[in-house]
Write a structure and sequence with these properties.
Blueprint: H1 4-7, E1 14-17, E2 20-24, H2 27-38, H3 58-75, E3 80-89, E4 92-102, H4 104-107, E5 111-116, H5 125-140, E6 146-151, H6 155-164, E7 167-177, E8 180-189, E9 201-203, H7 205-211
Antiparallel strand pairs: 1-2, 1-9, 2-3, 3-4, 4-5, 6-8, 7-8
């Protein structure tokens, strides 16, 4: 009998880097992430995300959060996909690490994005989970470059990018809340510049490669 992992192999993906694990986000994990995010992701007077999802009204938050992840699954195609993975550190759920791309088979590039629950910030986890994701993309999905971006008033995110090896790649103005704009620093990472963390091991790779059109 076919399983849900057969239908959407990302749910069976596991990337391990020491005591850190990145894995597919099933419905039970969505519920855990909702509770983690509700406990806080950033100070309310700041907004680190270009899409201000943490501003969603509390009574709508759970539905909106779940619908986003369901939408990622339903819209996944080799030409347009998001790889969103839950992150567990020492067995505890701490946040998510993602990668968004269009026309990947041609461009071999895309943008990383992530969030951590506030209680897990400042311990170096953000750097390690980005290192693990970038090593996976370069070593196992044949990426040739990876981009990212952060608002200039988000020094923690910019520091993570520097530690991983990203370099500045231009500046642009971005609306982050209605009627509010901020400069966003674009960033670029190449395989040679990647500052690697602990060695990664991967489970469930072959079906994910087939899903995005790379072959086993």
């Amino acid at each position: 009998m076919a399983s849900i992992v057969d239908a959407f192999p990302v749910l069976g993906l596991r990337i391990r880097a020491g005591d850190l694990v990145l894995h597919g986000i099933d419905d039970d994990t969505i519920a855990e992430l909702i509770e983690l995010a509700r406990r806080g992701v950033h100070p309310p007077d700041l907004m680190p995300f270009s899409h201000p999802w943490t501003d969603t009204p509390p009574e709508q938050f759970a539905a909106s959060f779940a619908q986003y992840h369901w939408g990622v699954r339903s819209a996944f195609s080799p030409d347009d996909w998001s790889l969103d993975l839950a992150v567990r550190w020492q067995g505890q759920l701490v946040g998510t690490q993602g990668f968004r791309t269009h026309h990947y088979l041609l461009t071999r590039t895309g943008e990383t994005g992530s969030w951590l629950g506030r209680e897990h910030q400042g311990a170096g986890v953000g750097t390690r989970m980005r290192q693990a994701m970038c090593a996976f993309l370069f070593d196992h999905l044949e990426a040739q470059e990876i981009t990212s971006a952060a608002f200039v008033d988000n020094p923690a995110s910019l520091a993570v990018s520097r530690k991983v090896g990203y370099r500045p790649n231009g500046m642009r103005r971005v609306e982050r809340r209605p009627g509010e704009w901020q400069h966003s620093q674009a960033l670029l990472l190449t395989p040679e510049a990647l500052v690697r963390g602990p060695e990664i091991t991967v489970e469930g790779l072959a079906p994910v490669r087939r899903l995005i059109g790379l072959g086993a």
